[in-house]
């Protein structure tokens, strides 16, 4: 267990990294899983003129893990909010493999991510295109959590970005639903737009059971039995089975 004094030392090292001059002062707050730290902005010297804004604002926060001492950087939010988000982050460990989790983190995903307002606006904007397509709860939940993310894919040589990138709605650009409607009719399985993929390009759709499919000009493919599995597959790449196989 990392003591408060040890956490304070780590926090000062974090605050001083890349900063010329003396070590900045830091403040520290303890919570169940560790410590939240941030740089203390010195008050400007008094002047006779109008108030002067601080030299910089929005300093990031750091979380020092209470077990390992590992430091992670977080946005400039109240320390209670950072502690809550860190607890969500830790609770999600194991949900995705480390390589996929790294891609998701870099793309802007985090546990508890909520894009409800963006999804609502997207549904209004494309109401005509989406008319007649039922949005099951699993589809809405996926759009709220992952909507707007750009997910690069590992190529065959293991290089990130060497494959086909996926874009999860709501994104810039329009929504194509003809393939989703044709898929629903052919397989008697209604689906809802989830995103698109550069291969083809093709459409990503999800059904009421959470199964994800890729509707490509060459064929319809099964991506995963649930959204999380599909996210892993889309990032890692690899062969997809044809939807006509009905293994799903």
Tell me what the structure shows:
This protein has two domains: 4-91, no CATH class; 116-245, no CATH class. It is 32% helix and 20% strand. The chain is elongated, with a radius of gyration of 23 Å. The strands form two sheets. Strands 5-6-7-8-9-10-11 form a seven-stranded antiparallel sheet. A four-stranded antiparallel sheet has the order 1-2-3-4, sandwiched between helices. The chain has 248 residues and is of the alpha+beta class. It has helices spanning 4-16, 79-91, 98-107, 116-125, 127-130, 137-146, 178-187, 227-236; strands at residues 26-31, 34-39, 61-65, 71-74, 150-151, 166-168, 191-197, 202-207, 212-215, 220-224, 241-242. The protein is built from eight helices and eleven strands. This is SUKH-3 immunity protein. It holds the Pfam family SUKH-3.
Short description:
With 248 residues, the chain is α+β, with helices and mostly antiparallel strands.
The amount of beta strand, in percent, is: 15-25%
Q: Main sheet?
A: 7 strands, antiparallel
Shape: elongated
Distance between the termini: 46 Å
Give the number of DSSP strands: 11
Q: What is the share of helical residues?
A: 25-40%
Global mean pLDDT: 90
Structural class: alpha+beta
Q: Can you tell me the residue ranges where pLDDT is under 50 for at least 5 consecutive residues?
A: none
Kindly report the spatial arrangement of strands forming the biggest sheet. Answer: 5-6-7-8-9-10-11
Q: Could you say how many structural domains there are in total?
A: 2
The H-and-E topology, N to C, reads as HEEEEHHHHHEEHEEEEHE
**Rg calculated over all Cα atoms:** 23 Å
What's the tally of helices?
8
């Amino acid at each position: 267990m990392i003591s408060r004094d040890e956490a304070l030392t780590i926090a000062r090292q974090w605050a001083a990294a890349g900063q010329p001059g003396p070590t900045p002062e830091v403040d520290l707050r303890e919570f169940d899983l560790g410590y939240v730290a941030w740089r203390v902005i010195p008050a400007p010297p008094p002047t006779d003129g109008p108030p002067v804004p601080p030299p910089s604002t929005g300093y990031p926060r750091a979380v020092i893990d209470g077990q390992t001492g590992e430091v992670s950087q977080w946005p400039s939010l109240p320390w209670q909010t950072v502690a809550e988000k860190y607890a969500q982050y830790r609770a999600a460990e194991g949900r995705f493999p480390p390589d996929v989790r790294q891609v998701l983190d870099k793309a802007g995903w985090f546990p508890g991510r909520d894009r409800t307002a963006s999804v609502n606006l997207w549904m209004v904007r494309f109401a005509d295109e989406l008319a007649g397509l039922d949005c099951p709860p699993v589809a809405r939940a996926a759009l709220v959590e992952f909507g707007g993310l750009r997910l690069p894919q590992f190529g065959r040589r293991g290089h990130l970005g060497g494959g086909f990138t996926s874009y999860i709605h709501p994104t810039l650009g329009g929504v194509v639903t003809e393939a989703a409607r044709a898929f629903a009719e052919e397989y008697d399985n209604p689906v809802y737009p989830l995103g698109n993929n550069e291969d083809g390009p093709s459409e990503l759709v999800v059904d009421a059971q959470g199964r994800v499919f890729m509707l490509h000009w060459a064929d319809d493919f099964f991506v995963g039995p649930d959204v999380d599995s599909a996210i892993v597959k889309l990032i890692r790449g690899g062969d997809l089975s044809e939807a006509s196989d009905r293994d799903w």
